[in-house]
Task: structure prediction
Amino acid sequence: DAGITQSPRYKITETGRQVTLMCHQTWSHSYMFWYRQDLGHGLRLIYYSAAADITDKGEVPDGYVVSRSKTENFPLTLESATRSQTSVYFCASRGEFNQPQHFGDGTRLSIL
Amino acid sequence: QKEVEQNSGPLSVPEGAIASLNCTYSDRGSQSFFWYRQYSGKSPELIMFIYSNGDKEDGRFTAQLNKASQYVSLLIRDSQPSDSATYLCAVTGSSASKIIFGSGTRLSIRP
Result:
């Protein structure tokens, strides 16, 4: 099915571990985004990408790394997970300027 | 001042009434405006977008935009219990590369 998929849907890991969240879209959208959503903070932008090999920081990039070698994939890596990174992570994509974003189903990440 | 502001609610509306959700934004160069609905535990879902001043209607939903006042609103007519959710206002900044989200308004439709 066309769309945007995130994996895994749920993940539990320990502090200090590296974890990668995957995001794949089949629309050939130029833009892709990673957000985290915590109670009381709404959606906060972590990183975004305007095209393959072009990424930029959002509001809360510290502790995260992204890459975009292919248009359809935009993985998010927590290099050394901390408890404060426990959250729900949403990936989104959209076409060119002024088009709406569409979200994946999210990854619920718990760091113990 | 936040870039996109919404009243957090909760906004309680009786079933069958009109729910009115409001949003203000700070960037006068903003070009595109979106409303998303988010059910608890789910991802945001696009319900309306508007680019020009005035009203845009889609079924029970009407989006209203006033760029001079930097104000965008969403009206939901004949509110149903299934409309109970958090509604996120989102605005494309003048650079158009990012969409800025408000913190959302919780809407509760009481039977």
